[in-house]
Design brief:
The chain has three helices and five strands, in the order E-H-E-E-E-H-E-H. By secondary structure, it is an alpha/beta fold. It has a single domain, classed as Peptidoglycan recognition protein-like (Lysozyme-like, 3-Layer(aba) Sandwich), CATH 3.40.80.
Length: about 150
């Protein structure tokens, strides 16, 4: 079993791949385990479009240390949005499900919205979660939902 931890921050990623409209999380898990040699998917959860509906697929368990952000895996929850948000816009249905999901994480884990980060804040040579993914806008939407 992976090292037990309690997430204190949420780090948002994108897969940098086109969403196929089918379950891409399996391909991500396969890449992480077979190519990179990790024990499981590096992310705790993956949000993707399956047909015309957004779905949340569990990667690692919430209390297991992830493998998604170098030097910040011990205390963070890694969430990946499937898609390339340097080129494309986040589908509104996927965005709204992500907001609801992260709001629930913040509520249950007592994480303030200011502790929702973009991956690029820890790896400044990357654009992750993409130029078209506004983490400030995402934080604001989560905050609005928590305050209603």
């Amino acid at each position: 079993m992976a090292k037990i931890m309690k997430p204190e921050i949420v780090i948002i990623h994108h897969s940098l791949t086109k969403d196929s409209g089918t379950v891409s999380a399996q391909a991500i898990r396969k890449y992480h385990t077979e190519v990179l040699g990790w024990t499981d998917c590096g992310y705790h959860a993956i949000i993707e479009m399956v047909g015309d509906r957004p779905e949340i697929i569990i990667g690692r368990m919430m209390n297991e240390q992830g493998a998604h952000t170098r030097r910040h895996n011990r205390n963070s929850y890694g969430l990946c949005f499937v898609g390339n948000y340097d080129k494309d816009e986040v589908p509104p249905k996927m965005w709204h499900l992500g907001v609801r999901f992260v709001a629930s994480l913040c509520d249950v884990l007592n994480i303030e919205t200011r502790y929702i980060f973009a991956h690029n804040e820890f790896s400044n040579y990357k654009t992750c979660p993409g130029k078209n993914f506004s983490v400030l806008g995402f934080q604001a939407n989560v905050r609005d939902l928590l305050n209603t």
